[in-house]
């Protein structure tokens, strides 16, 4: 305790010095230091928003009339959705539902890591602006966006369009921005309409509609900066940041003649947490057009094409550590391989151009960003639920959190909670029920009737319209996507034909046969040896596997189960159902025990397939887990 009696003047100056020092310390901590307790940030990836009731202007096509709503719906056909890795229509309602869940959980900060629109078209950017503004004004949500390969598709506005909107009678309708985008040799019966609302928007279009959502500084932010200005935390002011954020300051040269925008930014939305939004889009010129079209590869290209970013990230990471900030980067693209260590085997088994392997970050890429100082990165792009962890040669660990899409299975978003020093809790919030999900089902029925009347081959199965939940709907979508696109396009025809011809019982019996001669004979005549089949049946009983489970699991169902695991990771077991899960894992385990000889090509293929499946099955936690930033580890958390 200080006393003014002993030496009043000296004591007074001591107290004054102590008080000023304490005030400075408190101010310093407020401005530069500690995070708020229990901050939560929601990450909603790959929304792919399309305005399903868009105003297309004065053209003759307004959409397909929906008698139940009395409106014209600007939707794509179900056939288009089934052949795409994303939905185009119902995700509009799913996005609203996800935001309502965010509000119900009391979360105020929402990050959209790219592909927030269908293809960056003006009509969709306007719709997104309207939704984000509505939730910002009504509930105080603060949104932070970064770009994806679908927004923008081209660096500047360019002609665009789609040939699979739904028109009258459930028939396809082409809608393009202008005649320059028309394809040659269109079907004679395909109607064509025009609207500038369907052009590909560029960076400037995105900034015009969505610039306030992270791409520019806000007075609500503690701090905001971009790659092309000095990192000056202590001298920060909103006015200075606003001045420095003008677009003229945010270009980088890609050649002696051309420069492009980089919309990367660092923001401190709440005290102590730094969010680093990395614009990892890479664009290449389309010869003679003046158009720069985007690549979907991500950091495998961006590391070199946008080399200025890595140096900037190093400075940010160093500054974050100095000031005690928790740094979380986010981008549309992942920074760690997302196939659970199976990239090489996938390439060997299916080919280098399959399974989007060019999008999977190479180890050298992961090492570069880990060594730059990124410890936690949140990404979308792949429409999967996954967690990847990478440790560089100098022991820097990078955790990559893959956020599923709201427009595909499994529909979900991630919430990061910052309530423990040096740790981040990550929880997956599943989107099961969505209001108005079935709003267009009667229109799809009309489309299906038209396709049936036209005797179209490979029509999508109508039972998707029996779905009662959004989870069920997206599950049906994945099943049809596997049947109509993935199997025909990605799977080797010679081996897949055999696999599709076998039932689960036949596969399981085949996998128990001791040598290649027996296995090859069975694949030829499908006649089991009575003695061996009895032994096989007894083995099933001992392991608690019912024959009926395997009878329902043919080759197509097995491939589909693989995609559920690949896309859903830890979420897949619950969604596949108990008996399907048991039958699938039993069958894959049986196949993994095979030792095919060099001449047994189908057996080698199936063993590789099983190995890939098991690697994805034995993955690190991806549903609910804790990241230890100090130890560089991940710990699973049991759900309440």
Describe the model.
The structure is a single chain. This protein has 640 residues and is α/β, with parallel strands linked by helices. The chain has a seven-stranded mixed β-sheet, with no helix packed on it. The protein starts with 7 loop residues before the first helix and ends with a strand.
List its salient traits.
single chain; alpha/beta; seven-stranded mixed beta sheet; 18% strand; 640 residues; globular
Summarize the structure.
With about 650 residues, this protein is of the alpha/beta class.
List the helices and strands and how they pair.
Layout: H1 8-32, E1 39-43, E2 64-66, E3 71-73, H2 78-82, H3 91-104, E4 109-113, H4 122-139, E5 142-146, E6 161-166, E7 172-176, E8 192-194, H5 203-210, E9 223-225, H6 238-244, E10 251-253, E11 259-261, E12 265-270, E13 273-278, E14 282-286, E15 291-295, H7 299-305, H8 307-323, E16 326-331, H9 343-350, H10 363-372, E17 376-379, E18 386-391, E19 397-402, E20 412-420, E21 423-430, H11 441-453, H12 470-490, H13 493-501, H14 504-512, H15 516-525, H16 530-542, H17 547-551, H18 555-568, H19 572-576, H20 578-592, H21 601-617, E22 624-628, E23 633-636
Parallel strand pairs: 1-4, 4-5, 7-8, 13-16, 16-17, 17-19
Antiparallel strand pairs: 1-20, 2-3, 6-7, 9-12, 10-11, 12-13, 14-15, 18-19, 20-21, 21-22, 22-23
Helix pairs in contact: 4-5, 8-10, 12-18, 14-20, 20-21
């Amino acid at each position: 305790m200080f006393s003014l009696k002993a030496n009043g003047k000296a004591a007074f100056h001591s107290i004054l010095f102590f008080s000023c020092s304490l005030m400075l310390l408190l101010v310093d901590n407020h401005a530069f230091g500690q995070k708020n307790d229990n901050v939560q940030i929601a990450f909603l990836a790959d929304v792919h928003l399309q305005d399903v009731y868009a105003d297309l202007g004065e053209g003759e096509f307004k959409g397909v009339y929906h008698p139940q709503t009395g409106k014209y719906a600007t939707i794509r056909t179900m056939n288009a959705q089934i052949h795409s890795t994303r939905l185009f229509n119902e995700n509009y309602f799913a996005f609203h539902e996800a935001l309502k869940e965010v509000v119900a959980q009391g979360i105020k900060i929402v990050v959209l890591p790219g592909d927030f629109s269908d293809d960056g078209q003006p009509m969709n950017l306007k719709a997104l602006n309207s939704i984000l503004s509505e939730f910002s004004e009504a509930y105080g949500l603060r949104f932070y966006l970064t770009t994806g390969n679908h927004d923008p598709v081209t660096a500047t506005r360019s002609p665009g369009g789609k040939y699979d909107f739904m028109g009258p009678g459930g028939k396809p309708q082409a809608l393009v921005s202008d005649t320059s985008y028309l394809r040659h040799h269109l079907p004679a019966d395909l109607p064509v309409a025009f609207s500038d609302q369907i052009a590909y928007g560029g960076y400037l279009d995105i900034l015009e509609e969505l610039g306030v959502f992270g791409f520019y500084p806000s007075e609500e932010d503690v701090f905001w900066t971009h790659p092309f200005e000095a990192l000056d935390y202590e001298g920060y002011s909103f006015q200075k940041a606003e001045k420095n954020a003008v677009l003229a300051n945010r270009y980088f040269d890609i050649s002696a003649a051309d420069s492009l925008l980089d919309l990367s930014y660092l923001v401190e939305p709440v005290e102590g947490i730094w969010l680093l939004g990395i614009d990892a889009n890479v664009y290449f010129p389309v010869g003679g057009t003046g158009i720069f079209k985007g690549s979907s590869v991500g950091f495998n290209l961006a590391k070199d094409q946008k080399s200025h970013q890595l140096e900037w990230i190093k400075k940010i990471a160093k500054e974050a550590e100095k000031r005690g900030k928790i740094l979380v980067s986010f981008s549309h693209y992942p920074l760690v391989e997302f196939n659970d260590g199976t990239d090489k085997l996938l390439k060997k088994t299916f080919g280098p151009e399959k399974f989007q392997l060019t999008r999977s970050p190479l180890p050298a890429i992961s090492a570069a960003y880990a060594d730059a100082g990124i410890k936690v990165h949140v990404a979308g792009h792949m429409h999967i639920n996954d967690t990847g962890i990478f440790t560089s040669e100098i022991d820097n660990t990078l955790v990559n959190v893959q956020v599923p899409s709201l427009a595909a299975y499994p529909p979900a978003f991630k919430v990061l909670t910052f309530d423990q020093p040096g740790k981040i809790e990550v929880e997956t919030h599943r989107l099961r029920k969505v209001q108005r999900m079935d709003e267009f089902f009667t229109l799809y029925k009309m489309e299906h009737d038209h396709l049936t009347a036209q005797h179209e081959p490979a029509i999508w199965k109508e039972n998707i319209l029996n779905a009662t939940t959004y989870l069920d709907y997206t599950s049906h979508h994945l099943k049809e996507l596997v049947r109509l696109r993935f199997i025909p396009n990605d799977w080797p025809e010679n081996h897949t034909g055999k696999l599709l011809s076998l039932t689960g019982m036949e596969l399981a019996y085949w996998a128990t046969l001791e040598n290649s001669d027996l296995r090859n004979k069975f694949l030829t005549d499908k006649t089991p040896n009575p003695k061996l089949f009895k032994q096989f049946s007894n083995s099933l009983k001992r392991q608690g596997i019912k024959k009926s489970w395997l009878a329902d699991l043919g080759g197509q169902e097995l491939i589909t189960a693989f995609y559920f695991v690949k896309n859903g990771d830890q979420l897949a077991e619950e969604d596949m159902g108990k008996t399907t899960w048991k039958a699938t894992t039993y069958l894959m385990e049986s196949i993994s025990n095979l030792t095919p000889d060099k001449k047994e090509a189908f057996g080698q293929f199936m063993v590789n397939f099983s190995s890939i499946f098991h690697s994805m099955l034995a993955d690190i936690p991806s549903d609910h887990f804790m990241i230890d930033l100090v130890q560089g580890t991940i710990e699973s958390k049991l759900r309440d």
